[in-house]
Amino acid sequence: MTPLRLLAFIALLLSPSVSFAEEKYDIIIKADGMVCDFCAQSLNKVFSKKASVESINVDLDTSSVGVHLKDGQNLTDDEIKELIEWGGYDLVAIER
Ligand SMILES: [Cu+2]
Predict the structure, then answer these.
(1) Fold of the domain spanning 19-95
(2) Residue 52: CB partners within 8 Å, gap ≥ 6?
(3) Quick one: pLDDT at residue 49?
(4) Domain ranges of the chain
(5) What is the pLDDT of residue 13?
(6) Closest CA to 31 of 91, 95, 94
């Protein structure tokens, strides 16, 4: 593989295959105060510490966090509130 093709391949891997709106999440959290990639990264860090969380996806456009839970796992409203507030953001709504 040439370096250019390798770069293109990596870019493809890193880009989300479906948009936030198209993806199905177990929980969608709306929060105020998420404005940049650092916000998204810090939330990723905070949420990944939870054993029940498979992955999250932060959408800055809609100020939302999509959460994929591990099979049979749950995240309570209180836990979500705590995680969002740890990150320094204000919880607005939780959609399940
Ligand atoms: Cu930020």
Answers:
(1) Alpha-Beta Plaits (3.30.70)
(2) 69, 70, 73, 74, 75
(3) 94
(4) 19-95
(5) 67
(6) 91
Q: Is the pLDDT of residue 92 over 80?
A: yes
Give 33-71 pLDDT, tens digit per residue.
999 999 999 999 999 999 999 999 999 999 999 999 999
Q: Which residues have a Cβ under 8 Å from the Cβ of 32 and sit 6 or more positions away?
A: 63, 89, 90, 92
Provide the residues around ligand 1 (an ion) whose CB is within 5 A.
Answer: 35-36, 38-39
| pTM for this entry | 0.80
Rounded CA-CA distance 57/60 in Å is 10
Tell me how far the alpha carbon of residue 42 lies from the centroid of ligand 1, in angstroms: 8
